[in-house]
Amino acid sequence: DYNIDNWTWAKTQGVYNMVKDFKARGVPIDCVGFQSHFNSNSPYPSNYRQTLQNFAALGVDVAITELDIQGGSATTYANVVNDCLAVPRCIGITVWGVRDSDSWLGANTSPLLFDSNGNKKAAYNSVLNALNAATPSTSPSPGTSPSPGTSPTPGGGNGTGPIRNVGSGRCLDVPNASTTDGTQVQIWDCNGQTNQTWTYTSAQELRVYGNKCLDAAGTGNGAKVQIYSCWGGDNQKWRLNSDGTIVGVQSNLCLDAVGQGTGNGTQIQLYSCWGGNNQKWTFTQ
Q: pLDDT by residue (tens digit) across 187-206?
């Protein structure tokens, strides 16, 4: 849709709530497309990435289906590309025309990547540089994926118990039974103590000690997973999937043992889901 780029706009919120309602009622929807035509009256918003992230967190792909920028700012083109690259479910960008002379806005607005003679513009180079600078997802080594039929199933709905990492056999643990906000969680030998006892609530929270939530400190690969006082944010909501993954609602990334580590004290982060046993968990309720 058009004019849903800025997260603070009423139309953006209206479309977001509509998609959220569709997902809640099981209405089929796979992707939300953004017609991003930026100009002086409707400039590129600094919260554009947040908008893409928030829609993706609803469980849909996002795509920039129509992009042009009047004036052809190389910086803005790079920003848009980097915003899409930062959201794992952003599946593509379509620039709305090839040469400026092809644009529906007219060649004088200079909104595209090539001038009217077909020459590459600075915006073209900025897009290419952004794509080349993107860090590819780490490829798992062959043979590390679990064999068919062995994927554990985390419990769905309300339940209380330990959460065991498949790769290590160790439990999701709050170090030293800390109750301090911001403490990064780890895996540790299962011991049945309160710092390893998690409750999955109807609000999709994973609570420990009753009032602390499993919390993502960011939305990108490598973001710290910690405990924090529960407040209802999407960064404290998790999907427990039948394939054994635990996925952040806000980020759409998996709960991941850093570096495929298996030892006591291995820290937990968010990372793109790839099927490794370090991203598989069993929830014993």
A: 999 999 999 999 999 999 99
Which is it for the CA torsion 242, 247, 253, 255, positive or negative? negative
Number of H helices and E strands in the chain, helices first, is 4, 16
Q: Is the pTM of this model over 0.90?
A: no
| Arch. (CATH architecture) of 10-133 | Alpha-Beta Barrel (3.20)
- pLDDT tens-digit series, residues 76-119: 999 999 999 988 889 999 999 999 999 999 999 999 999 999 99
Q: Residue 142: pLDDT above 70?
A: no
CATH number of 159-283: 2.80.10.50
Cα 103 to Cα 48: distance, rounded to the nearest angstrom: 23
Buried b (16+ CB within 10 A) or exposed e, 194-217: ebbbbbbeeeebbbbbeebbbbbe
Contacts for 23-31: CB closer than 8 Å, 24+ residues apart: 23/58, 23/59, 23/60, 29/60, 30/60, 30/61, 31/60, 31/61, 31/62, 31/63, 31/91
**Percentage above 70 pLDDT, the chain:** 91
For residue 224, give the DSSP letter: B
